[in-house]
Amino acid sequence: MKTIKLIFSLFIVLATFKGVLAQTKAEKKAAKQAAVTKMIDAQHYTFVAQYANPLGGGHRYLNSDYDLKVRKDSLIAYLPYFGRAYFDAGYGDSNDSGIKFTSTKFTYKATPKKKGGWDIVINPSDAKYITQINMYVSADGYTNAQFTITNKSAISFDGYLKDKAK
């Protein structure tokens, strides 16, 4: 009889703990989604690239700090490039084939998606060769950023958003 009571008590404790754990997990997810919403609304975040996806194929893990900083008054890109260049990139050093620019003249449009997340379209007018950046942001902050470049094949990056990075 004591064994049955002990097993029953243990079952009750485990069921209660599982409920508390699930609630905590749901609360963490809601807090993260609220933080992402705040970043998008404030137009103040950094996209951290983890993978590069060149147009010709291949999924490359990035082991350095590559990012795109989005602010109301500026865009600052420091990203690698893998793919085909159609003519001289003109980015300065011929060995530097990355996507590196600072823009202060751009349009920015964030459209909420029906099932959560956003479609963001950025059109810099003062970034040489970069015509458009399309970002698809999930409610949790996971992001795919596609770059349309006039002198190179397109490339996209997978990563996540983080708040107010240096």
UniProtKB/TrEMBL annotation:
InterPro entries in alphabetical order: DUF4251 (IPR025347)
Domain of life of the source: Bacteria
Keywords: Signal
The keyword Signal appears for this protein: yes
Record protein name field: DUF4251 domain-containing protein
Signal sequence annotation: 1-22
